[in-house]
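Study this:
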Amino acid sequence: MARLLDKLVILMICVIGLCSDNSWERPVVVLLISAALTLFSQLWDNVKVSTILVVVWAVSCIFFPIMICTLPLILFEALSLRRPWLIVPAFAALGRADELTMVQLVITAVGSLCAWIIYSRISRLEAEVDKLHALRDTTAESNIQLSMENHQLAEAQDNEIRLATLRERNRIAREIHDNVGHMLTRSLLQSGALLVINKDEAMREPLESLRDTLDSAMTSIRASVHDLHDESVDLHKIIDDCIASVDSRFRVELDYDAGDTIPADIRLCFAGVIKEGINNAVKHSTGDRIRITVREHPGLYQLVVADNGSCTEIHETGIGLKNMRERAASVGGHITFTPSREGFRIFMSVQRKDKERNK
């Protein structure tokens, strides 16, 4: 729009020169043609078409010297195309300059100078606008990059906190097992020994009550230690450790898309199936690639362990596949084994409970 307005200003200068002609028919025709070509070039917005229009315009000046009065407009269009040499044919019309008045020649010269000044101003303005756009894009990109880095940093910090929490849970579970558990075990043995050597019937009931209390405490401690250990299971770390131990002839790919809300029993089950699946691949697969996929869907948890070794049938001579089926059944999951010429695939899914879906 800015260029169109500038063209209209330059066209008005050309109109002043055309009005200085002795007749009115030729200026009107030239003005209409010039305005039409300018608008057509502006609306078409095609470099090739605009170049052809400028050349035709310049050549027409040779046959119709009155069109020299529109030289400022031609010059501005050529400068906009960054091809000022396109107006060279128009200078051939200077040989017939005697057909124009001195006023027309002066106005044309002044108009050409104005066209050059306007174009220079617009070029500088557009250059500054381009710099501002580039700066805006760079700033936006930097902000996005900074946001991503902050997000990664926050995730790293959360992961460190989670790992520290898991380590602390393991430490507490170990301390309870090694200290409190051993002391309770010793107390149980001592209470049992006292019951054996006790001859006083009045003390039997209190001793039996003491033994039952200690046994109940021992059961509670074992359950707490078991829960602490299960909650401290880091499935992603277990998978990473399994991958690190794989034979170098295999390239292991991991696609892990699950949060920290997978129940402990399912995490332990997945860990066991993954270990068994990797061991089977290393022992029996003829391929060189293992892919592990762990996904958390709205309705289920999914595990896939696949290799690219050719396998057309399953030989259930060992206990590996049986163990995986038992693990899947223990958490209410479904597991399938698919042999093919493209590889062996283990697919396991465990349906999420209703309360897990609502979280």
